[in-house]
């Protein structure tokens, strides 16, 4: 690491700490030449390989802007979108690969978006999965309904009222 003050080609790490919930490391460094201290922030790079073969750095902002379109007019806040983008990034980083295919990012978005807002999920999935018939929509809606029925049955089995999350039925 070059010193930003005197451009000396080496520096000594004085202190290291995790930052941003463990996704990066903050290092305090000192230049052996001029003695001045400076801070660096190190993160593991994550690149996206697009369909065209072009590689670009991963961006949470692109996830947020893409999902924001699907959530237009829905009761979804900016905080919800930021949390979704964080979940997607964490899922992708857990795969352990430095390069992620753009298609995999879309797949990683579908799950958290389905939990966040089902209408937005259908909008996003219809574009992302290239729905081209009513049958595609019907299939997705049938899947959502089956999931709702399973959850309601599970709540009923636990003695909870399936129409709310308040606890045991009276």
UniProtKB/TrEMBL annotation:
GO terms for biological process: negative regulation of DNA-templated transcription. Residues 148-161 have a biased composition (Basic and acidic residues). Transmembrane segments: none annotated. Residues 46-136 form the ATP-cone domain. Its cofactor is Zn(2+). Keywords: ATP-binding, DNA-binding, Metal-binding, Nucleotide-binding, Repressor, Transcription, Transcription regulation, Zinc, Zinc-finger. It comes from the Bacteria. Residues 148-170 are annotated as: Disordered. A zinc finger (unnamed) spans 3-34. GO terms for molecular function: ATP binding; DNA binding; zinc ion binding. Binds 1 zinc ion. Belongs to the NrdR family. Negatively regulates transcription of bacterial ribonucleotide reductase nrd genes and operons by binding to NrdR-boxes. This is Transcriptional repressor NrdR.
């Amino acid at each position: 690491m070059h010193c930003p003050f005197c451009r000396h080609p080496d520096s000594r790490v004085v202190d290291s700490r995790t930052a941003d919930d463990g996704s990066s490391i903050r290092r305090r460094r000192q230049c052996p030449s001029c003695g001045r201290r400076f801070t660096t922030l190190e993160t593991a790079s994550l690149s996206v390989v697009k369909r065209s073969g072009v590689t670009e750095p991963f961006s949470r902002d692109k996830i947020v802007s893409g999902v924001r379109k699907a959530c237009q007019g829905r009761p979804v806040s900016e905080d919800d979108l930021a949390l979704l983008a964080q979940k997607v990034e964490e899922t992708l980083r857990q795969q352990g690969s430095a390069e992620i295919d753009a298609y995999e990012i879309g797949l990683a978005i579908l799950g958290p978006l389905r939990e966040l807002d089902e209408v937005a999920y259908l909008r996003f999935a219809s574009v992302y999965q290239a729905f081209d018939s009513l049958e595609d929509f019907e299939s997705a809606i049938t899947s959502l309904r089956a999931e709702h029925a399973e959850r309601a049955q599970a709540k009923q089995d636990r003695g909870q009222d399936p129409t709310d999350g308040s606890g045991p039925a009276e």
